[in-house]
Design brief:
The chain is an all-beta fold and 134 residues long. The protein has a single domain, classed as Toxin - Anthrax Protective Antigen,domain 1 (Toxin - Anthrax Protective Antigen, domain 1, Alpha-Beta Complex), CATH 3.90.182. The strands form two sheets. Strands 5-4-7-2-9 form a five-stranded antiparallel sheet, with no helix packed on it. The radius of gyration is 16 Å and the shape is globular.
């Protein structure tokens, strides 16, 4: 049959708030950690418009959106290394939404992300929220 589609089974998805005591978000804690994807989202409250570097490490690939606009993506199998990918972005004054998709083949399943100014100094005047209501 040409042009046929495979049936898609129902998949239960849910958002969970998870706190990690270190800078790496380890996604292997979920029941399934091979051949899947995970999403992470947050709101970034910026005191002003600012150009920053968004620095990301992922195990394995990723796709990244800021304020519903695609920022970057990489389809790969790799281990987690801090600041593997750097994207120059503009945070708007007020609330910004960040969405990260992490793809997973086998092995480790994690990510880390941070903002620096254009001179690579940490940006410390941002507030990060898990929902827009603060």
């Amino acid at each position: 049959m040409v042009g046929g589609a495979l049936p898609i089974s129902k998949i239960d998805c849910k958002w969970e708030k998870i706190n990690f005591p270190h800078s790496q978000v380890d996604l292997s804690l979920f029941d399934y950690s091979e051949n899947i994807i995970a999403y992470a989202a947050c709101y970034i409250d910026s005191p002003e418009d600012m150009d920053v570097k968004l620095k990301l490490g992922s195990d394995d690939g990723y796709k990244l959106w800021l304020n519903h606009r695609p920022i970057g993506e990489l389809n790969t199998c790799r281990g987690l290394f801090v600041d593997s990918n750097i994207h120059r972005v503009t945070l708007r004054k007020g609330m910004n939404v960040l969405l990260l998709k992490i793809t997973q083949d086998i092995g480790g399943f994690a990510f880390c992300l941070r903002f620096t100014d254009l001179n690579d100094k940490m940006v410390d005047n941002l507030n990060i929220w898990l929902n827009a209501e603060k």
